Amino acid sequence: MDYNYKEKKIVGVIGSNVEPSIALNVIGHLAISIGAYADKDIMGQANIKDKSGVNHVGISKYPFIITKVKMGKVRQAIETAKQNPNILVVDYPKEMLTTAHDEELVKAMEEKEEQQLEYLGAVLYGDAKDIDEITGKFQLWRID
Hints:
single chain; two-stranded antiparallel ribbon; 5 helices; globular
């Protein structure tokens, strides 16, 4: 497999007021979604055997960076990324946290205008240069 691992990038954007326990939940859901809906090129080798012959499921072949920004920057990153057809955007409105199941989430989302949504986070996937234009100045996520 010959590729440039720096050509694409995956960046998680989490609101700075999101508690760490919630942030982990948000990133977990977003990671599953980005993996399911991204092109097949996002993944490395499907199975990797160690020297003992034990199989390990492969991971993304591109960097996945988690950042933390003010809530307004989360929305701005989502809006900017959605304008670029080459970037896959998975967003996480607060309704995803406050509803119990998928049908309830769908109903809650249908009842709100986009501008009423409070985004807790998002994951962006695409060409590194496009992603860097949006997230390049964002702070890496860490527990303060």
